[in-house]
Amino acid sequence: MNFDQAVSQRVAAVSESATLAIDGKAKALKAAGEDVIGFGAGEPDFPTPAHIVEAAARACADPAMHRYSPAGGLPALRAAIAEKTARDSGLAVEANQVLVANGGKHALFNVFLTLLDPGDEVLLPAPYWVSYPEQIRFAGATPVELPTDVSTSFRVTVEQLEAARTPQTKAMVFVSPSNPTGSVYLPEQVEAIGRWAADAGIWVITDEIYEHLVYGDAEHVSMPVVVPDVRDRCVVVNGVAKTYAMTGWRVGWSIAPASVTSAIARLQSHATSNVANVAQAAALAAVSGPMDAVAEMRATYDRRRKLAHERLNDIDGIDCPLPEGAFYAFPSVRGLFGREIGGRRVDSAQTLCEVLLETVKVALVPGEGFGAPDCVRLSYALSDDDLVKGLDRMADALA
Ligand code: PLP
């Protein structure tokens, strides 16, 4: 039997996540005993802070946690997320607006499926995180890419948004700090875009998963805080993965008008039911606990970002803007195209990444999957030793 024909058109149209693919390759090589430096995965290298792990251990021993719980999240966690949102970004929300999902990725999937119909268009600034266009298409809608480049620090403008708006435009995706570019919008830019969306009656899905990871003068501001008029058509997505080094625990959430949250809860009740209670207990300890570990991790990323920026720009053919947030460097490698590297002619980011993995065992993510074929993404959320080792290997290979 040809199983390809058994797969639905909807799923057949979805491509594999470029970031998970490179990470999978790197991990497989590592498992086979190769000394691979993985710049691919977007995940902190730190263990989850101890007080969070302890809360999870206590939850394991609590029989109430062994049972189904409400599909939309443990009431205590929904309330704590509402409190944390007021504390961190200044947005006042009620617990019934919060929906706890299996990670920010699942929260976004829920949101797109709940808001979008076939024929709807979603404005998507590029470079974008790989899952947005796939999820939007999965919901039957069309992602409309708005290209940005290093000359505007990868920030989309109101003019671009307005030029791309059609009667079918239902929503836009906004993410700051950004994965993959590491850029952060200025407060006045967030305000201008929010005003435009509110005036145009367009939904904003604002992904705030990197809110705590901003460096130097960069500042995270939440769009519905600076533009209250956008709140009726705004969904904030967030999670514990990046801030608290909790990628594997799989807890994220959406915050939307209460009626939209009820609709998302209906969807989730038929898809996954509740997120694992133990992970929710860990998330509760994270969002309501001390932030010292977060501050320490941020200081470490800040140091590493400067190192990565400097070392990458030392390589002839690589042009790297200084990342302002998240934990990614997103250099242009266009200057390397046409060169012979490791016995192969490099004419795309994809080929460069293949060559670097094969020859010096360094895993980077090619920009094609992010809608940026001239760039590659490096996560600098890896140990200092590995960071230096990986950059040395790149410098040698590209000398
Ligand atoms: N949003 C952005 C911009 C991300 O980079 C990621 C993870 O890489 C997510 C959402 C989803 O995070 P998680 O599903 O691990 O909570």
By DSSP (H or I, 4+ residues per run), the number of helices equals: 15
Low-pLDDT ranges: none
Lateral strand order in the biggest sheet: 2-8-7-6-5-3-4
Give the strand content.
5-15%
Shape: globular
State the end-to-end CA separation.
50 Å
Please provide the count of β strands: 14
Structural class estimated from helices and strands:
alpha/beta
The percent of residues in helical segments reads: 40-55%
List the ions, cofactors and other small molecules found in this model.
pyridoxal-5'-phosphate
Average pLDDT, rounded to a whole number, is 95
Question: Total domains, how many?
Answer: 2
And the CATH topology of the largest domain?
Answer: Aspartate Aminotransferase, domain 2
CATH superfamily of the largest domain: Type I PLP-dependent aspartate aminotransferase-like (Major domain)
CATH architecture of the largest domain: 3-Layer(aba) Sandwich
Question: How many whole angstroms does the radius of gyration measure?
Answer: 21 Å
| Largest beta-sheet characterization | 7 strands, mixed
Query: Which sequence of SSEs, written as H and E, runs from N to C?
Result: HHHEHHEHEHEHEHEHEEHHHEEEHEEEH
CATH class of the largest domain reads Alpha Beta
List keywords for this structure.
alpha/beta; 14% strand; 2 domains; Aspartate Aminotransferase, domain 2; 3-stranded antiparallel beta sheet; 399 residues; binds pyridoxal-5'-phosphate; 7-stranded mixed beta sheet; Aspartate Aminotransferase, domain 1; globular
